[in-house]
Amino acid sequence: MTRRTAPRTLLLTVGELLAWWAALTLLWLVLITPVYPLEWVVGGSSAAVGALLARAGRRAVTWR
Predict the structure, then answer these.
(1) pLDDT at residue 63, rounded to an integer
(2) How far apart are CA 31 and CA 12, in angstroms?
(3) Which of 27, 48, 50, 64 is most solvent-facing, going by the fewest CB within 10 Å?
(4) For the segment 11-57, what is each residue's pLDDT rounded down to a tens digit?
(5) What pTM value is reported for the model?
(6) Are 47 and 21 a contacting pair, CB within 8 Å?
(7) How far apart are CA 17 and CA 50, in angstroms?
(8) Distance (Å, rounded) from C-alpha 28 to C-alpha 50?
(9) Of 43, 16, 38, 45, nearest in space to 28 by CA
(10) How far, in Å, CA of 50 to CA of 62, rounded?
(11) How many Å apart are CA 47 and CA 13, to the nearest integer?
(12) Backbone phi and psi for residue 2, each to the nearest 5 degrees, phi listed first
């Protein structure tokens, strides 16, 4: 039997991931000087992985 996620929970999860991604990407942009297209891809991808790990870590700590 599959468990359905409520739309509100899904929106909160996506919002949290986007907030983490934006914060980590902004931090990365502040720490580097020249920004080349390949660095955008690498930085954005790394921020996405960091956002997933931050979400997983927060969820593990709060048991939600």
Answers:
(1) 66
(2) 29
(3) 64
(4) 999 999 999 999 999 998 888 877 888 888 888 999 999 999 999 99
(5) 0.77
(6) yes
(7) 9
(8) 11
(9) 43
(10) 18
(11) 16
(12) -90, 145
Q: Which tokens hold the place of 39?
A: 């660095």
33: tokens are 């000087």
CB of 28 closer than 8 Å to CB of 43: yes
DSSP single-letter state for residue 1: -
Distance CA 32, CA 53 (A): 22
At position 12, the amino acid (one-letter code) is L
Residue linked to tokens 């921020």 = 47
CA 42, CA 54: separation in Å to the nearest integer? 18
> pLDDT value at position 11?
93
DSSP 63: T
